[in-house]
Amino acid sequence: MADYSKIPAGAKVQPKAFRAHIDEQKLQHMKDLLKLSPIGPAVWENTSQDQGSTLMSNPSRKYGMRRDYLEAAKDHWLNKFDWRKQEDHINSFPQFTMPITGDDGVRVDVHFMALFSERKDAIPLAFYHGWPGSFLEFLKIFSLLRERYSPKDLPYHVIAPSLPGYAFSSGPPVDVDYNVEKASNVMHKLMVNLGFESGYLCQGGDIGSGVCRVLASKYDACKSMHLNMFFVPPPENASSLPMDALEAKALKRGEAFMYEGNAYMREHATRTATIGLALSASPLALLAWIGEKFLEWTDEDPSVDEILTSVSLYWLTDTFPRCIYPYRGPPQKDRPRPEHISKPSGYSFFHMELAPTPKSWAETYANIVTYNQHSKGGHFAVGHTERVSPKVDANSHQAMEQPEALLSDVEEWVKKVWKGSKL
């Protein structure tokens, strides 16, 4: 197999090679807890096939996770799901760890996946995930790049870190009040330590979009950002700005989400400790909480293996209670309007995004130089893990979500913004 693990010659700090491996005892403990976890009783809210019209979700899931889905997923998790197979797929990509001390003096051991190029003019490109995602979001894009390019002709150095507190990255210490700005500083230092202090690009959605905005606004080395979630408030002149029919339809769904689907967000923000402790008590509870999001926030239902891989990663690395710090802080309505990003930026609009910002609104907050609109795809537009076993039921559809489309958008944006690009 081609070797994409050669560290660039200009790296200031040599990362340590890493392989994902969960101790067998921890795996067995998860299964034991899963066996002992009861499924709640049948009630109208978790059994009715038609719970009323909703813009945001399937009418049979208006009130959240269905009991029949959870029952089938639990059985699949116990009897068919193979974590070791998923682990092998993860380990087919080069991975590393690097200790980084932020400007606040806090050290984080950062895990990241990478495809390094042998080209001297390779463009450094970082992808940042969100919640309830992880670096797993980028496995499909990494697979596409590996299929298209050898290490000798790969146009990019591609890096997908685990944000502080997620997966195999360590979290902030228990005596530190952490936030996205501090995490972004660590992400910037990772790129500098890898030798990219003269310039790099960043791409992100969800919390990753917030990281990109911080990097683009604060650090000269970050030359441009590309977002697939543009989470900003409506501009003051929003009513006078144009939008097309697809944007208007998506905006109605986004408004519905703020009424029907954001209870989890308020819980994360206001009772961070409670939800962290509650979901650390049972893997089945974690599946109900996170699985609902993967089902509701995608254009088509992902396979059960995709959902279980993410939930297993969260459980086996104790991610959930360590990772929801970005939700804390003042309510969105009380936060100052984001500053305009003058650097050239790219934006991919997916119609089922939770925060579907029209192009004209995005242009109020950033210098948009590439824009692509997609009538398929939702919140997890970047894609996810490969399907390795059957779907949980006949209502499950194709794998998440539109990695080919997003990668095409990203490559168009790179050509536009990277000076001297020879793509």
TrEMBL record:
Keywords: Hydrolase. The keyword Hydrolase applies. Residues 16-138 form the Epoxide hydrolase N-terminal domain. The keyword Heme does not apply. One of its GO terms (molecular function) is epoxide hydrolase activity. One of its GO terms (biological process) is epoxide metabolic process. Signal peptide: none annotated. Belongs to the peptidase S33 family. This is Epoxide hydrolase N-terminal domain-containing protein. It comes from Baudoinia panamericana (strain UAMH 10762). The lineage of its organism: Eukaryota, Fungi, Dikarya, Ascomycota, Pezizomycotina.
